[in-house]
Amino acid sequence: MMDANTDANTITEAPAVPMPVPIPDLPATDLPATDDGRIPVTLLTGFLGAGKTTLLNHLVQQQEFAGTAVLINEFGAIGIDHHLVQHVGETLVLLESGCICCAVRGDLVAALKDLHEKLSRRQISAVRRVVIETTGLADPVPVVWTLMEERFISTRFRCDGVVSVVDASLGAAQLDAHQEARRQVALADRIVISKPDLADRSAREALEARLAALNPSAPRMTVSHGTLAPDWVTGAGIYAAAERTSRFAAWLGTEEAPAARHDDSLATFTLHFDRPVPWRGFCVALGGLLNDHGDHILRLKGLTNVAGAEGPVVVQAVGRVAYPVVRLPRWPGHTGRFDRGRFDMRGRLVFITQHLSQDQEADIRQRLAFLPDDAAALRAAATTPLLPTRCWLGARMPVVGRGGFETDGWRIQPLRLGAGSAIPA
Ligand SMILES: Nc1nc2c(ncn2[C@@H]2O[C@H](COP(=O)(O)OP(=O)(O)OP(=O)(O)O)[C@@H](O)[C@H]2O)c(=O)[nH]1
């Protein structure tokens, strides 16, 4: 049985100070980023789970994105996405705990000022571009407004465009249900349609029509697993200085910086697991939860400490859809054999929910606090054919046996053959 220490968090909580990730000691240079000297900023937006981090991960590994500073904002209490970005240019700042369009907007300004200061002092090498990945619930309007209207920022950075990622299979329903999703599309300069493999042709065509109606001027590109040509997202540049305010004032219907408001029904909470979990029990419990409460779970993501595994296992789900797990070679902060224990190896699961009742949340906490062992989980899985996490069960993962020993993928159990012998349960 496992204990899940819980730590509730809602969107009304005060934002945390941004956590700068250590910046490598690289030589400073004087290369100008753009013609007018201002550094272009790409705003990467899109609804929860649309595929923003996947796209970012691909882009920052391209030569064209060398010298890119990445700012990631997450809505849950614990940032996960920044652990998934394999190779960022030189600087990565996590704007944690809150949504960039409301609570964290001041932190965004502070982070960009900090970046500029480090550049001026030549503490970091030239930054040619900034990419801001917003939370899936962010309204991009106030963020773009901040980039364009905050005096210090707008004289040093320029908004190079809003790229909005839309999920080919879930996008239409998200556009129907969430104002934020519609605003992300409506404001986009480029629309990336992700996960074409998960939608059939008619669904893709219906989504295209919907996107065209919401934003007829933005070019659209369908992309598998984020493999987009970098030049397609750069230089969207519709926000030329001359037209910026009038364009926005018209769109917003006001000259004032807009206050972003989320639906009160949205909430987030995080569960911590103090001890490693039995993988199969964890899969079956989470699959059951997605089955029962998936309508209210907008997004689920986490790092899991699996019994017997060296590094963490990344789990993700959007609604009832569980995505294939990813095994990371080591825990964030773990740099070598000898620092074991000096970094946080607790499992953490972040839920972003809508209209989830207190009883339902309590049910989630309860079921994750008491996980079945591997053997019991496999028996349960056999009687639940539509388990959303079934694909997780196929992942090569250590098996924790009773009286046997652990191995990757196989359970080796000592068997005594002969009269009276029994196969252990
Ligand atoms: N099948 C399929 N899965 C994809 C594709 N692109 C991304 N995914 C998966 O979709 C899941 C969510 O992708 P992310 O990149 O984390 O989405 P996100 O928009 O950054 O998510 P949030 O930060 O939570 O809003 C991950 O498991 C990806 O591997 C694709 O083209 N096809």
UniProtKB/TrEMBL annotation:
What is an example of a Pfam family matching this protein? CobW_C
The organism's superkingdom is given as Bacteria
Q: Which sequence ranges form a coiled-coil region, renumbered to this chain?
A: none
Q: Which SUPFAM superfamilies match?
A: Hypothetical protein YjiA, C-terminal domain, P-loop containing nucleoside triphosphate hydrolases
Q: What does this protein do?
A: Zinc chaperone that directly transfers zinc cofactor to target proteins, thereby activating them. Zinc is transferred from the CXCC motif in the GTPase domain to the zinc binding site in target proteins in a process requiring GTP hydrolysis.
Similarity section: Belongs to the SIMIBI class G3E GTPase family. ZNG1 subfamily.
**Protein name in the entry:** G3E family GTPase
Which species does this protein come from?
Xanthobacter agilis
Lineage of the organism: Bacteria, Pseudomonadati, Pseudomonadota, Alphaproteobacteria, Hyphomicrobiales
